[in-house]
Design goal:
Blueprint: H1 3-17, H2 21-28, H3 33-40, H4 48-58, H5 62-66, E1 78-80, H6 85-108, H7 129-143, H8 153-161, E2 164-168, E3 175-180, E4 184-190, H9 195-210, H10 223-241, H11 244-258, H12 263-273, H13 277-286, H14 292-299, H15 302-311, H16 323-334, H17 340-346, H18 354-361
Parallel strand pairs: 2-4
Antiparallel strand pairs: 1-3, 3-4
Length: about 375
């Protein structure tokens, strides 16, 4: 590639992220921003070793940096509680880069990228609360999520429907989703959130994937309309994660055996379904097991918060990871399709930690002897 063309692409990539020359120079590892200025002006050639640094700093694959692909992201991201503009650009670039890596692993293993095809949904299917309830229950059955959807949803979406689920450190409360023509459906969850919050976020973003074609992104620029859609997504997530018959069964069984129902029971059942105590209370109100006023009062009671904090203090555990991404990366490493250095880069660990990392995942690095499978 001619030096001037590469210089222009590097400048465009930096500006797309909203990085100043000084900030970008630090990320790449240049002691002075003037070095980057010289590169972008075409006055200094980029060394081969520096290309890799630019790729990581700008979250752009070498193919896009050196090839004919457009540097601008070709898809729209739907944010909930979006961060400031500059941070938003950088996170979106990182998401796109991670999706490229994900897609690369699929191609190396000759796997077709699943497009996350769900049931067909029109705007009429989310027009009322009753319609939202019907959609939630229909999708739960379609995905075969069982009676405790929070604990099966990620695996089902990743393994059976090819949804790329990523976990990133983001501003508190943020989550984002997109449907890309090349990569398919993508959901990004804030890894800093508590497990029960991540479950809810995943269900919430699933609503946006399911309704991606029915709800115009252009219309969502209207804040009032966006707020209405978010309320529908919240209702969808609540009903999806808390199947009515199963919730009623748990509540009524406790009343029958204990002759009472306490704050502690609320927290215990919430933990069993993988949701927050507040989410359970409002769902109980929706199921007419509690009056709305009573559910709201209890949800705001400090005593409930304290009981929940005490019972769930050991529940957070390690930060979540994309199980399918790691599984594909290990498979590629086992088969010699990627180097150990590339593997370490993809899963964001030091090369010296690879063996321990793979052992912790329960996945063997060695392929072992081949097995002949009989065709049916």
């Amino acid at each position: 590639m001619p030096n001037n063309e590469l210089a222009a692409r590097l400048k465009a990539a930096r500006e797309a992220l909203g990085l100043t020359l000084g900030d970008a120079a630090k990320k790449v590892g240049f002691p002075h921003y003037q070095t980057l200025t010289s590169i972008e002006n075409g006055e200094r050639e980029v060394k081969a070793s520096e290309l890799s640094k630019f790729s990581k700093a700008y979250f752009i694959s070498l193919n896009r940096l050196l090839g004919d692909e457009q540097l601008q992201l070709s898809n729209a991201f739907l944010w909930r509680n979006p961060p400031q503009a500059e941070s938003k650009k950088q996170i979106e670039a990182e998401i796109y880069y991670r999706c490229e890596q994900f897609h690369l692993l699929e191609k190396l293993l000759n796997l077709k990228a699943k497009k996350g095809t769900f049931i067909d949904v029109s705007i009429d299917d989310i027009s009322s609360n009753n319609e939202i309830t019907t959609l939630s229950e229909k999708l739960r059955d379609y995905l075969s999520l069982g009676s405790r959807p929070a604990f099966t949803m990620q695996k089902v979406l990743e393994q059976d429907f090819g949804v790329k689920i990523l976990f990133e450190t983001m501003p508190a409360g943020s989550a984002v989703s997109t449907c890309n023509p090349e990569f398919g459906s993508v959901i990004v969850i804030n890894s800093e959130e508590a497990p029960w919050r991540r479950n809810y976020d995943l269900a919430h973003e699933l609503f946006h994937l399911v309704t991606w074609k029915a709800v115009s992104l252009k219309d969502l620029e209207d804040q009032s309309y966006f707020n209405d859609i978010e309320k529908k997504a919240e209702r969808f997530a609540s009903i999806l994660l808390l199947p009515g018959n199963d919730v009623k069964k748990e509540v009524l069984e406790r009343i029958e055996t204990q002759k009472q129902f306490t704050y502690s029971d609320v927290v215990d059942i919430a933990m069993e379904f993988g949701v927050s105590a507040k989410a359970l209370l409002y769902r109980m109100a929706n199921l007419r097991l509690l009056a709305w006023e009573e559910a709201d009062r209890i949800a705001k009671d400090e005593e409930l918060t304290e009981i929940s904090r005490h019972k769930r203090q050991d529940e957070k555990g390690e930060k979540p990871k994309s199980e399918r991404f790691i599984s594909l990366a290990v498979r590629c490493l086992r088969k010699g399709l990627i180097s150990r250095g590339k593997f370490a880069e993809m899963v964001s660990i030091d090369r010296s930690d690879i063996d321990d990392f793979i052992e912790e995942t329960g996945l063997m690095e060695l392929e072992g002897n081949p097995i002949e499978i009989m065709a049916s």
